[in-house]
UniProtKB/TrEMBL annotation:
SMART domains: PH. The gene is Osbpl11. This is Oxysterol-binding protein. InterPro entries: OSBP_sf, Oxysterol-bd, Oxysterol-bd_CS, PH-like_dom_sf, PH_domain. Transmembrane segments: none annotated. Plays a role in regulating ADIPOQ and FABP4 levels in differentiating adipocytes and is also involved in regulation of adipocyte triglyceride storage. Weakly binds 25-hydroxycholesterol. Interacts with OSBPL9 to function as lipid transfer proteins. GO terms for biological process: lipid transport. One of its GO terms (molecular function) is sterol binding. Heterodimer with OSBPL9. It catalyses: a 1,2-diacyl-sn-glycero-3-phospho-(1D-myo-inositol 4-phosphate)(out) + a 1,2-diacyl-sn-glycero-3-phospho-L-serine(in) = a 1,2-diacyl-sn-glycero-3-phospho-(1D-myo-inositol 4-phosphate)(in) + a 1,2-diacyl-sn-glycero-3-phospho-L-serine(out). It comes from Syrrhaptes paradoxus (Pallas's sandgrouse).
Length: 699
């Protein structure tokens, strides 16, 4: 057919960060199922500079623009290419996909299953072959033989006992080790010869073995749940979870300096230690801790997330993960690989949205309801740029239930935008004393303090609560967010379900607001973040509202990260301000009087948050809780980071099972459930109301 004819032409090929894009002459060899490229058309008669086998490959148009696409070979190698326009890209993508499908189907028809192959894996090569040279101490048999374990015949019991589950766990550990050896042995085979690392059957064996281990782990989890259900109430408390002891000592995992909240009591049964640990954990959650801002120091941590190396090296892991997902699948319970994590918790990310406290405090300084609404919109739109660390779409740690994060900001009063009519000393001396101890002496300070606290209040569904307040300016914000992740093919979408409430107590105004969706695009190449959706900000008392659209990039043309919005007075339907631009670069505000203001987010000053040193933090504060994972990621030790991350997640699962068995409800520390939302236990509006009541009674 015409579609199977060879095609050729110039495309741009992305090489690396240093070299960037280069023009290369590409040839699609339909008969051989190869995509080859040369330095130029004149060198076409020479050996190709590069070749990709298209059988089993994935051809993906990029979300970045209408010209770029990627070719991901079954071997894990990838070409990132760019055509001159959208039409040419579609031409190449269509022909590549037809060729790929043809040769992939041919392999399935013409090659027998692995078990009927005539050669023996143990007999391939000699002592001088590359595969043997790389691993001189082991031969192919030790890697390609998989042990089979059977339980003694006839031993059938109505309920699987804990020691049997221990046996199963050990068998699975052995199988996981053998599967890893199998993968390594395949990757150590030569790239040419009778048996190569690119052999289609061996590539299929790699994928199916990984999928099999995932399936076995799911089955083992079902056995655990079944066992807990059958044993509920029939054994002494704690006995049924003795087999759930994690391999890594959590006492050591949480240890930090002299402080240690999980002592390793070796002489006690594992089940007792586990139950006591969970009981202590719940006890920790009952009493809120008052954090003294004077103990917090300016944060010196500066973890940029611009490193692409790990993503490039782990491409095969991403491809395998994608092969296990389905369109629309909820990713809440999917464990993502450690190397795509950024070095902070989601709770700390919410705090980083507050990195412009001067704009936050300036909201209440607006002299009219219209000005205060516009100031809130300005602050809201400037918060997302700093909330994202770098351009790479890495994922913050999933907070563990009960995890908390505390910080504060000190903002010089001279740097907060004010109006001539605003009175910075609005509090009378009696009010200063009546409000709270936090207000004592504040009139003598030349800075405002904004305090922040966040807590993971639920695990399934994953819900976070966060609260910030500036006592001196009588303003606070309370929000709860449920993050729902879905797989969208070449993207991952995160819906931020929930609502925030800004309270300006000096004016008696409340502003409700929502959050946009987030998308990780181009997850097979260099992932990047995009925001999308419509958000609304509304103040019932004043009748002002704002509607903001975060535009996702269209398939053809268009700008990235574009936003448009307007502020209007609902009663008259009058637009008082319009905004447009990009949420991560430049914003343009046009006011009803004809004036225009530009905000360059890349030059906007960022106030560093203040955080307590690790040795003064509690065991469930984010930075101390995740410190070993963060340190390992900084050192580039992905395996060690994964080990520490797995220990934390196992601890969370153990405690969740224990609470289910004992029917013990989870106790939050700082946030209380109110209707469908979560509210800080001591919000400023309650404190101010109580102070005013006491003052009235005193008079």
């Amino acid at each position: 057919s015409d579609h199977m004819e060879n095609i050729y032409g110039y495309l741009m090929k992305y090489t690396n960060l240093v070299t960037g894009w280069q023009y290369r002459f590409f040839v699609l060899n339909n008969e051989a199922g190869l995509l080859e490229y040369f330095v130029n058309e004149q060198s076409r008669h020479l050996k190709p500079r590069g070749t990709l086998q298209l059988a089993g490959a994935v051809i993906s148009p990029s979300d970045e623009d209408s010209h770029t696409f990627t070719v991901n070979a079954a071997s894990g190698e990838q070409y990132k290419l760019r055509a001159t326009d959208a039409k040419e890209r579609q031409h190449w993508v269509s022909r590549l996909q037809i060729c790929t499908q043809h040769h992939t189907e041919a392999i399935g028809k013409n090659n027998p299953p692995l078990k009927s192959r005539s050669f023996s894996l143990a007999s391939q090569g000699s002592a001088n072959s590359p595969g043997v040279q790389r691993r001189p101490s082991q031969n192919a048999v030790s890697f390609f033989s998989v042990g089979h374990h059977r339980l003694p015949a006839g031993r059938r019991v109505p309920v699987m006992q804990p020691d049997h589950l221990v046996d199963v766990r050990e068998m699975m550990s052995q199988a996981e080790g053998q599967q890893r050896d199998l993968i390594r042995s395949i990757e150590c085979l030569p790239v040419s010869g009778h048996l190569t690392s690119l052999d289609q059957d061996l590539l299929m064996l790699k994928a199916t073995s990984m999928a099999t281990m995932n399936c076995l782990n799911d089955c083992f989890h079902i056995l655990q749940l079944q066992h807990a259900s059958q044993q509920k109430g029939s054994l002494p408390a704690g006995t049924t979870i003795s087999w759930l002891e994690p391999k890594i000592s959590l006492a050591n995992h949480f240890k930090n300096g002299a402080a240690q909240n999980f002592p390793a009591e070796i002489n006690k049964p594992a089940s007792v230690r586990e139950e006591q640990s969970a009981a202590e954990h719940c006890q920790l959650t009952r009493e809120p801790e008052e954090i003294n801002p004077d103990e917090e120091l300016e944060d010196i941590c500066d973890d940029k997330e611009d490193d692409l190396g790990a993503v490039e090296e782990q491409r095969s892991v991403i491809l395998h993960l994608l092969s296990q997902l389905k369109l629309g699948m909820d990713l809440t319970r999917v464990v993502l690989p450690t190397f795509i994590l950024e070095k902070r918790s989601l709770l700390e990310m919410y705090a980083d949205f507050m990195s412009h406290p001067d704009l936050f405090i300036a909201i209440t300084n607006g002299t009219t309801p219209e000005e205060r609404m516009i100031r809130f919109v300005e602050y809201y739109l400037t918060s997302f740029h700093e909330g994202r660390k770098g351009a790479i779409a890495k994922k913050p740690y999933n907070p563990i239930i009960g995890e908390t994060f505390h910080c504060s900001w000190r903002m010089p009063k001279s740097e907060v935008a004010a109006d001539a009519g605003s009175n910075f000393s609005a509090h009378s001396p009696s009010e200063q004393v009546a409000l709270s101890k936090d207000l004592e002496g504040q009139t003598e300070l030349d800075y405002y303090t904004v305090k922040f606290v966040a807590e993971q209040v639920s695990h399934h569904p994953p819900v976070s609560g966060f609260y910030a307040e500036c006592v001196e300016r009588k303003m606070c914000v309370n929000a709860h967010v449920w993050t729902k992740s879905k797989f969208l093919g070449m993207s991952i979408g995160v819906t931020m379900v929930g609502e925030g409430l800004l309270s300006l107590l000096e004016h008696g105004e409340e502003y409700t607001f929502s959050l946009p969706c987030a998308y990780a695009r181009s997850i097979l190449t260099v992932p990047w973040v995009e925001l999308g959706g419509k958000v609304n900000i509304n103040c019932v008392k004043t009748g002002y509202s704002a509607s903001i659209n975060f535009h996702t990039k269209p398939f053809y043309g268009g700008k990235l990260h574009r936003i448009t919005g307007e502020v209007k007075q609902n009663a008259t339907n009058t637009v008082v301000c319009r905004v447009q631009g990009e949420w991560n670069s430049m914003l343009e505000f046009t006011y009803s009087n004809g004036e225009t203001k530009y905000v360059d987010l890349t030059k906007l000053s960022v106030t560093r948050k203040r955080v307590r040193p690790l040795e003064k933090q509690g065991p469930f504060e984010s930075r101390r809780l995740w410190q070993h994972v963060t340190e390992s990621l900084r050192d580039g030790d992905i395996d060690k980071a994964t080990e520490h991350k797995r220990a934390l997640e196992e601890q969370q699962r153990n405690e969740e099972r224990l609470r289910a068995e004992t029917e013990t409800p989870w106790c939050t520390k700082y946030f209380l459930k109110e209707g469908d939302g979560w509210v800080y236990h001591k919000p400023l509006w309650k404190t101010v109301s109580a102070a005013q009541t006491r003052q009235t009674d005193a008079n």
